[in-house]
Amino acid sequence: MCEKQKMLNGEIYNAYDKDLVLLRNKARHLTKMYNNTDPEEATQRIELIKRLIGKIGGGFEIEPPFNCDYGTNIEIGENFYANFNFLVLDDGLVKIGDNVLCAPNVSIFTATHLLDPKLRPKNADYTKAVTIGNNVWIGGGSIINPGVTIGDNSVIGSGSVVTKDIPANVVAVGNPCRILKNID
C-alpha cells in the first residue's frame, strides 16, 4: 500500500515519502498563486480553489491568505465562507458541510504524531479525520484538533481549542472547548 493511502486510512505513514512531498509542493504552489491574487481577480481565485480543493460546492469564498497541506483531502459544501488566515492541515480527510462560516485565524488539523519518542524521528505520522456539520460557525482563532466532529448548527466561540466532539445545536467555548448552552 502506498504512503498516501496509509495516510488517508489513518495508518502510520512516512510523511516524507517522495510522492507526498510532490503533492504538498503542488498545494504550496497553488496556495501561493491564490494568496497573491488581487481582490478583483475573483474568476482566477475560483479556478485556483477548484484546482486545489478535492470537492467544493457553490457560493464559496476563502479570503487570502489560505494554506493547506494537500487541498485534495478537503471536501466543502455549499455557501462556505472563511475569513483571513484559514489553515487546514488536511493530511487526513476534512469534511465541511453547507453554510459554514469560519472567522479569521481558524485552524483545522488532522495530522498527529506518535507518542513513542523513538518512532517520531522516523517521520512516522498518522491522521484522524475532521468533520464539521451544516450551519456551523467557528469563531476567530479557534483550533479544531484531529479526530473531532462538530455537529450541525453549533457555534464554536472565539479562541476555542476543540479537542473532543461537539454535538449538534450547542454553543461551545474555551480551552479545552466545552458546551456552554444549547441552541433551541
Description:
This protein has 184 residues and is α/β, with parallel strands linked by helices. It has a single domain (3-182), classed as UDP N-Acetylglucosamine Acyltransferase, domain 1, CATH 2.160.10. The protein is built from three helices and 20 strands. It has helices spanning 3-9, 18-35, 42-52; strands at 13-14, 55-56, 61-62, 66-68, 74-76, 81-82, 86-89, 94-96, 101-102, 107-109, 111-113, 124-127, 130-132, 137-138, 143-144, 149-150, 155-156, 161-162, 170-173, 178-182. The protein has a seven-stranded mixed β-sheet, with no helix packed on it. Strands 2-5-8-13-16 form a five-stranded parallel β-sheet, with no helix packed on it. A hairpin with a 4-residue loop joins strand 19 (170-173) and strand 20. It is globular and about 50 Å long. The model has no long low-confidence stretch (mean pLDDT 96).
Quick structural overview:
By secondary structure, the protein is of the alpha/beta class. 20% of the residues lie in helices and 30% in strands. The protein has helices at residues 3-9, 18-35, 42-52, and strands at 13-14, 55-56, 61-62, 66-68, 74-76, 81-82, 86-89, 94-96, 101-102, 107-109, 111-113, 124-127, 130-132, 137-138, 143-144, 149-150, 155-156, 161-162, 170-173, 178-182.
